């Protein structure tokens, strides 16, 4: 088991470094929810709602490419950028090590 370290910027601008084990097959969305970030995740990680939208401020080129479902959902967002991803589609593994994510998706009410 390795600990994958990456930074997360919350909507209020606060930045925290997270260390998540890579042996639990978690998505970034699940890791953020477990770390008590307010991620709505209405669809439960199926790339159907885009409420887990993040921007990849550092490390974007290390990530796997987006699949067509993710790209279709990102296309529905008014605030999508060329560094946008859905946290539900990113698995915690060595490719996330050193990355910096900014949460921009919908918040829990």
TrEMBL record:
<protein>
    <submittedName>
        <fullName>2Fe-2S iron-sulfur cluster-binding protein</fullName>
    </submittedName>
</protein>
<dbReference type="InterPro" id="IPR001041">
    <property type="entry name" value="2Fe-2S_ferredoxin-type"/>
</dbReference>
<keyword id="KW-0408">Iron</keyword>
<keyword id="KW-0411">Iron-sulfur</keyword>
<keyword id="KW-0001">2Fe-2S</keyword>
<keyword id="KW-0479">Metal-binding</keyword>
<dbReference type="Pfam" id="PF00111">
    <property type="entry name" value="Fer2"/>
</dbReference>
<dbReference type="InterPro" id="IPR036010">
    <property type="entry name" value="2Fe-2S_ferredoxin-like_sf"/>
</dbReference>
<feature type="domain" description="2Fe-2S ferredoxin-type">
    <location>
        <begin position="2"/>
        <end position="107"/>
    </location>
</feature>
<comment type="similarity">
    <text>Belongs to the adrenodoxin/putidaredoxin family.</text>
</comment>
<dbReference type="InterPro" id="IPR001055">
    <property type="entry name" value="Adrenodoxin-like"/>
</dbReference>
<dbReference type="InterPro" id="IPR012675">
    <property type="entry name" value="Beta-grasp_dom_sf"/>
</dbReference>
């Amino acid at each position: 088991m390795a600990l994958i370290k990456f930074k997360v910027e919350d909507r209020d601008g606060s930045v925290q470094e997270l260390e998540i084990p890579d042996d639990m097959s978690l998505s970034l969305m699940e890791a953020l929810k477990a770390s008590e970030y307010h991620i709505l995740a209405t669809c439960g990680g199926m790339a159907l709602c885009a409420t887990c939208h993040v921007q990849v401020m550092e490390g974007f080129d290390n990530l796997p490419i987006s699949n067509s479902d993710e790209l279709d959902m990102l296309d529905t967002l008014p605030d999508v950028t060329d560094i946008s991803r859905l946290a539900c589609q990113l698995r915690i593994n060595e490719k996330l090590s050193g990355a910096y994510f900014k949460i921009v998706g919908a918040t829990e009410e």
